[in-house]
Amino acid sequence: MDVPERVFPVGRLDKESTGLILMTNDGRMTNYLTHPKYEHEKEYVVEVFGPITDRQLEAMSESMFILGSQTKEAQVKRISS
Fold first, then answer.
1. Is the pLDDT of residue 66 over 80?
2. Beta-carbon-side half-sphere exposure of residue 36 (alpha carbons within 13 Å)
């Protein structure tokens, strides 16, 4: 980005994803919105190729370990076939 001051991304997008990235020059706000201790809810819509079973949806909602940290349980729902 060609801007005259330092800006921070709030969140990230993976290579195969699309979405909105909020950019700000407020580092404190960035920390508040992204640090897990503030427990901000996040929502994702995922499109997959092929069928997903009810058991797979249930497994996706369970707590898991990612990079040594345990996630909270998630609400997962099918929005279309």
1. yes
2. 5
Q: What is the pLDDT of residues 20-49, one digit of tens each?
A: 889 999 999 999 998 889 988 888 888 888
* pLDDT at position 78 over 80: yes
Helix/strand/coil for 1: coil
Question: What pTM did the predictor assign?
Answer: 0.62
Active site residue 14: yes
Question: 51-58 contacts: CB < 8 A, separation 24 or more?
Answer: 51/81, 52/78
Where are the chain's structural domains?
A: 8-70
Distance CA 21, CA 25 (A): 13
Buried/exposed code over 40-74 (b: 16+ C-beta within 10 A; e: otherwise): eeeeeeeeeeeeeeeeeeeeeeeeeeeeeeeeeee
